[in-house]
């Protein structure tokens, strides 16, 4: 009976473990999978811990002297030089998300960073239709996630393609908080599925420029004493080496590798995750590439020798592995332009043909020099292998943004001006231009420096003073015509369903400040883009437009959500405002967006199509300057703590349309345990009743044991009290009850 009892107890614990263990260690088997028609969507749950971390930490042991150590778990090598970074689950790039269209993505973000820094995560390229509260923009769609707290993002993966996630607060993207998001389709819905043989999870290529120190320090030095902001190196999937001016490596950490088999055709996905005006040119030795998608949207195949990509952009291409044989290696070369052209910044990865034989061919990592006079052709995404973005052809049907006249046409002048920006100058003590340092220019749109609202616009519009808002028609004319610094909440409001044309003009060709503009919540059609050999102004654009010299492409214009407006040029974009909410539209250069080169596209929900905030959605805002009067109501953002204290869970999610809502543990219980990317394991329905039955059986068994022990004890007491010769009986009873009295077998 004892052995049976122990078996039952063990089985109960095993089954209880199956109930409690709601996350598997490896989500790849669950969500990274081929996608099929009519397949049931999966709920892909992930737990992320955001931390301060270090390249070449103790997790790397003897890396790079021992190259194998560089491949250890939690070893982040970077370019081979130690520096402080920010990571998710001690990975850089952070955990990738690879799902099928229609899957539910649920990410629990625990903020364990030091210095009490708030954070949000933006899902770059995902429109968040029906889920605007999940867009992840601090003080626009949500409050920042405080230190030692957590937040649950939950939404449907409803627009397929190559996207990425990144921190959308401060400089955290530039220090390592970014990763890929790939949403695949069934072959029947992928117009290019017949063109490639494999779309492998390992063929995602994340490119970023890399600084010598935490970027907030670089930012502060740049704007306060005109320090250098130039990056030190380039990384490919978080790996690389530091090179000297001659192109020779000075560190020897491993390079990223991409494996192929001879004769097969592969789909690669490239993501620009940089932070500076540093377009990157990617090429593969001896191989041509065929572009098939841009920013997640399919285009007609375009054969090129190389791709130029700005921060925020994504390109999918097909590579035909027909130039090598077993064991061959070819360099994947990435060279930098503009800010990354100093010292000829470069990086390499390896394309390896699989097989048992590995050839010892010498790889030459040094890059050819990039001619300085290529700026006019390569700047600001005006070319893709000499092919303008506007000449790419969309494979999607024309929508009404192309077939209808715009309901709104907004002229947006991107200027970089010398003004007394009080964030960097004190007009009385050290005014702009007379402080002993070179002039520091302020990037603006229509002479306006955009600022974050004091409370999240999407959920607490009533808490924002209407006087905080502005646009070109309401702002003081001196903001644009004179050297007056003007700062406000720059908002453009349009009606649901309106066709909007955005004419973006970058005034000066002298600043080489092309601006990769990214739209949240929408994709747009690029109907015109060009760069002139003179300073561009809005008035000049209007004159050229009246003369018929601005040619808009109104058929099969490519969809994008990020496009670089060329300096000394223009880009004309059209979109349908069919997604209610407040959507950030901003330059993706961190040093520009952080000083206000942005605006908010407000699409009010007059038709009731936008869901309300999720239950218990956090609220925040400024504390009143005057104490609340007893006779008046508390401000709408003030929520007193109940008797029971604040809600123990700081994770929030929509109740609808999801019926299987789940609460996670608090961030504090998780912050000391780095967690892998995880996806929910489904508990079989039979487990709970079986556990209940076994528990009942065990209760009965324990009751039997207890009764027999009591009975034996009473018999022994009776024998001693009568003084009879019961030694034999007593010894028999002891021998019979010994196994029951000692469950451990002693």
Fourth-tier CATH superfamily name of the largest domain: Cupredoxins -  blue copper proteins
Helix content: 10-25%
Proportion of residues in extended strands: 25-35%
Structural class: alpha+beta
Mean pLDDT: 82
Give the N-terminus to C-terminus distance in angstroms.
Answer: 15 Å
Domain count: the total is 4
β-strand number: 34
CATH architectural category of the largest domain: Sandwich
Please state the CA-atom Rg, rounded to the nearest Å.
31 Å
Count of helices? 10
Determine the CATH topology of the largest domain: Immunoglobulin-like
What are the low-pLDDT stretches, counting only 5+ consecutive residues below 50? 9-27, 368-386, 634-653, 655-685, 723-746
Can you summarize the main beta sheet?
A: 7 strands, mixed
CATH class identity of the largest domain: Mainly Beta
The dominant shape is: globular
Topology:
Elements: H1 2-20, E1 23-24, H2 28-31, E2 43-54, E3 84-88, E4 97-100, E5 104-111, E6 121-124, E7 150-156, E8 161-167, E9 178-184, E10 204-210, H3 215-225, E11 233-236, E12 257-260, E13 265-272, E14 280-284, E15 289-294, E16 297-304, E17 307-309, E18 314-320, E19 329-336, E20 346-353, H4 375-378, H5 400-403, E21 408-417, E22 442-445, E23 449-450, E24 469-470, H6 478-481, E25 487-493, E26 499-506, E27 515-519, E28 524-531, H7 538-546, E29 559-560, E30 562-565, E31 569-576, E32 581-587, H8 590-593, E33 598-603, E34 679-680, H9 687-722, H10 727-741
Parallel strand pairs: 2-5, 4-9, 10-13, 12-20, 21-26, 23-25, 24-25, 25-33
Antiparallel strand pairs: 1-34, 2-3, 5-7, 6-8, 8-9, 10-11, 13-18, 14-17, 14-19, 15-16, 15-18, 19-20, 21-22, 26-31, 27-30, 27-32, 28-29, 28-31, 32-33
Helix pairs in contact: 1-9, 9-10
């Amino acid at each position: 009976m004892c052995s049976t009892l122990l078996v039952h107890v063990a089985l109960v614990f095993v089954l209880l473990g199956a109930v409690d263990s709601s996350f598997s260690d490896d989500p790849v088997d669950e969500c990274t999978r081929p996608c099929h028609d009519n397949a049931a969507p999966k709920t892909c749950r992930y737990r992320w811990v955001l931390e301060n971390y270090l390249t070449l930490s103790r997790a790397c042991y003897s890396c790079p002297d021992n190259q194998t150590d560089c491949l250890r778990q939690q070893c982040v090598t970077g370019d081979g030089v130690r520096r402080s970074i920010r990571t998710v689950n001690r990975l850089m790039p952070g955990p990738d998300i690879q799902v099928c269209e229609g899957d539910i993505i649920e990410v629990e973000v625990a903020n364990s960073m030091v210095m009490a820094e708030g954070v949000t995560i933006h899902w770059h390229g995902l429109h968040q239709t029906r889920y605007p509260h999940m867009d992840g923009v601090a003080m626009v769609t949500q409050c920042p996630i405080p230190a030692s707290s957590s937040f649950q993002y939950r939404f449907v993966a409803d627009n397929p393609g190559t996207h990425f996630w990144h921190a959308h607060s401060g400089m955290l993207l530039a220090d390592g908080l970014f990763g890929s998001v790939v949403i695949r389709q069934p072959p029947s819905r992928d117009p290019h599925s017949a063109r490639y043989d494999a779309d492998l999870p390992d063929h995602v290529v994340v490119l970023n420029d890399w600084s010598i120190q935490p970027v907030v320090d670089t930012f502060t030095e740049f704007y306060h004493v005109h320090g250098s902001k130039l990056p030190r190196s380039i990384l490919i999937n978080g790996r690389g080496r530091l090179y000297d001016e001659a192109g020779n490596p000075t560190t020897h950490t491993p390079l990223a590798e991409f494996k192929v088999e001879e004769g097969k055709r592969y789909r690669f996905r490239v993501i620009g995750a940089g932070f500076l005006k540093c377009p990157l040119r990617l090429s593969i030795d001896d191989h041509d590439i065929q572009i098939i998608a841009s920013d997640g949207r399919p285009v007609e195949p375009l054969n090129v020798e190389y791709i130029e990509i700005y921060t925020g952009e994504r390109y999918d291409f097909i590579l035909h592995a027909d130039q090598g044989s077993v064991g061959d290696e070819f360099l994947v070369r990435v060279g930098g332009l503009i800010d990354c052209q100093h010292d000829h910044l470069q990086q390499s990865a390896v394309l390896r043909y699989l097989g048992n034989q590995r050839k010892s061919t010498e790889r030459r990592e040094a890059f050819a020099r990039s001619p300085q006079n290529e700026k006019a052709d390569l700047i600001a995404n005006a070319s893709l292998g000499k092919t303008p973005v506007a000449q790419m052809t969309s494979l999607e049907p024309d929508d009404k943004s192309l077939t209808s006249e715009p309901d709104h046409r907004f002229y947006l002048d991107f200027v970089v001006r010398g003004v007394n920006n009080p964030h960097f100058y004190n007009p009385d003590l050290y005014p702009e231009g007379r402080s002993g340092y070179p002039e520091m220019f302020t990037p603006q749109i229509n002479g306006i420096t955009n600022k974050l609202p004091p409370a999240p616009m999407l959920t607490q519009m009533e808490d924002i003073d209407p006087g905080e808002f502005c646009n070109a028609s309401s702002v003081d004319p001196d903001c644009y015509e004179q050297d007056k610094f003007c700062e406000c909440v720059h908002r453009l409001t349009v009606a649901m369903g309106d066709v909007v044309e955005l004419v973006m003009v970058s005034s000066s060709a002298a600043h080489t400040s092309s601006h990769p503009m990214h739209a949240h919540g929408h994709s747009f059609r690029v109907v015109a883009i060009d760069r002139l050999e003179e300073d561009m102004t809005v008035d000049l654009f209007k004159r050229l437009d009246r003369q018929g010299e601005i040619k808009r492409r109104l058929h099969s214009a490519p969809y994008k959500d990020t496009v670089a407006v060329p300096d000394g040029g223009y880009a004309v974009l059209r979109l349908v405002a069919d997604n209610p909410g407040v959507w950030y539209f901003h330059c993706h250069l961190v040093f520009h967006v952080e000083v206000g080169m942005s605006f908010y596209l407000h699409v009010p929900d007059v038709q009731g199509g936008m869901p309300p905030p999720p239950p218990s959605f956090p609220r925040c805002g400024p504390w009143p300057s005057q104490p609340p009067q007893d006779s008046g109501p508390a401000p709408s953002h003030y929520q007193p703590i109940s008797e029971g204290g604040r809600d123990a869970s700081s994770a929030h999610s929509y109740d609808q349309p999801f019926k299987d809502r789940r609460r996670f543990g608090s961030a504090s219980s998780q912050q000391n345990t780095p967690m892998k990317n995880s996806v929910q394991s489904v508990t079989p329905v039979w487990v709970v009743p079986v556990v209940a039955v076994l528990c009942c059986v065990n209760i009965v068994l324990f009751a039997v044991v207890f009764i027999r022990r009591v009975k034996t004890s009473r018999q022994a007491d009776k024998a001693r009290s009568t003084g009879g010769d019961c030694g034999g009986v007593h010894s028999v009873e002891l021998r019979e009850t010994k196994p029951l009295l000692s469950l451990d077998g002693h």
